[in-house]
Amino acid sequence: MAETNHETPVVLTVNAGSSSVKWALFQVAASPARTAGGRIERIGLPDGIVTFTDGATGHDQRRVAQIQDHAAAVRWLTDQLAQSGRGISIKAIGHRVVHGGSRYVDPQVISGEVMEELRRLSPYDPEHLPAELTLIEAFAAQYPTIPQVACFDTGFHQHLPAVARLIAIPRRYEKQGVRRYGFHGLSYAYLMDELERVAGREAAHGKVILAHLGNGASLAAVRDGVSIDTTMGFTPASGLPMSTRSGDLDPGLVSYLSKTEGMTADQFHHMVNAQSGLLGLSETSPDLRDLLAQEGHDQRAAEAVAVFCYQGKKWIGAYAAALGGLDQLVFSGGIGEHSSLVRARMCEGLDFLGVQLDQARNDAQDAVISRLDSRVTVRVIRTDEESQIAQSVCRLLALPAGRGTR
């Protein structure tokens, strides 16, 4: 899009999943302002759904559309932007890239060298990286002169100490990049900025546990503003059980299922990423909202919810030990932001740590849900990975502020 005097410069952010793309437009500014966004879901299925959200009104337009693959998703999106994006000029495209390996930590302008390294890293996360690479290539074909920036979900955890980073297998694998990386880093970086904004620098530089609970779920222990441990490790399948991911497993299962069922490595990978977690335990749904509605009459649903909450509580206790205490506990993500029941169950019995919820505040979805006399402040903060991407892109490219700068 050629810029005229009447066009507003914007950054397009892209957050890809294995079968979805979440996108947003942000006006270039010191604090980038969201102007529009949307989702492309169920890519590759006949009942795909596309949603367009007006940034000013929050109004959603939703319809069914068959999107064959991620490249087709880019074509659909660029067509929509061409039709509805008059008056804007895309200055850069920022991508959430799940894995940066050992080499990439900070946001990078995407070049041939970066793409080559990301292709090499694809076996690290075959659920996400191939789709992200397809999107980058497709956008390059559509907008060949617009810079693209990779923002890495592993970057927030770059300073993990050796005790949290190392995996207890032969050392030669560490030299190949096999270690604990951690994920949800863009969300955690945003949450730490927000914590400092709403509670001050002292709170943000205390002993903090962040709980990003959504379809993917993880916790992070943060001290002095730096991540010292996190539940996800070499891949996003580890840690807590999630919607369809198993979380931590006994590695002996690989050999056992290979011998008893002839399960291959690819089949095992598919099972622990797509058939496990809440879906595997309940055998009905990966959606926690469904399971909470069913738990009164379905034991499997009740046990799936109980396992999820128990594992979350266990990690909170473990990270309080790793931090040497706890000052702030922050819930975020779709589940963490909206499910008062899950928050209450994860905090139940943690009085000994100084965690005391105020039931009325929790039920009301208040920003602070702990009691006034609670030693630990428990908060709910809405995360915004796209905003974090837009800010990173503007800083990296030193983009000038557009009209309407806040």
Structural notes for this entry:
The protein is an alpha/beta fold and 406 residues long. It is built from 16 helices and 13 strands. It has helices at 70-84, 112-121, 129-142, 162-165, 172-175, 185-199, 201-204, 252-261, 265-274, 277-282, 288-294, 299-323, 333-338, 340-347, 359-363, 385-397, and strands at 8-16, 20-27, 33-41, 49-54, 60-64, 88-97, 108-109, 148-152, 207-213, 217-223, 226-230, 328-332, 377-380. Strand 4 (49-54) and strand 5 form a beta hairpin. The longest helix is centred in the C-terminal third of the chain and has 25 residues, at 299-323. The chain is globular, with a radius of gyration of 21 Å. The two termini are 24 Å apart.
Report a brief summary of the structure.
With 406 residues, this protein is of the alpha/beta class. Helix content is 38%, strand content 20%. The strands form two sheets. It has an eight-stranded mixed sheet with strand order 5-4-3-2-1-6-8-7, with helices on both faces. It has a five-stranded mixed sheet with strand order 11-10-9-12-13, sandwiched between helices.
SSE topology:
Layout: E1 8-16, E2 20-27, E3 33-41, E4 49-54, E5 60-64, H1 70-84, E6 88-97, E7 108-109, H2 112-121, H3 129-142, E8 148-152, H4 162-165, H5 172-175, H6 185-199, H7 201-204, E9 207-213, E10 217-223, E11 226-230, H8 252-261, H9 265-274, H10 277-282, H11 288-294, H12 299-323, E12 328-332, H13 333-338, H14 340-347, H15 359-363, E13 377-380, H16 385-397
Parallel strand pairs: 1-6, 6-8, 9-12, 12-13
Antiparallel strand pairs: 1-2, 2-3, 3-4, 4-5, 7-8, 9-10, 10-11
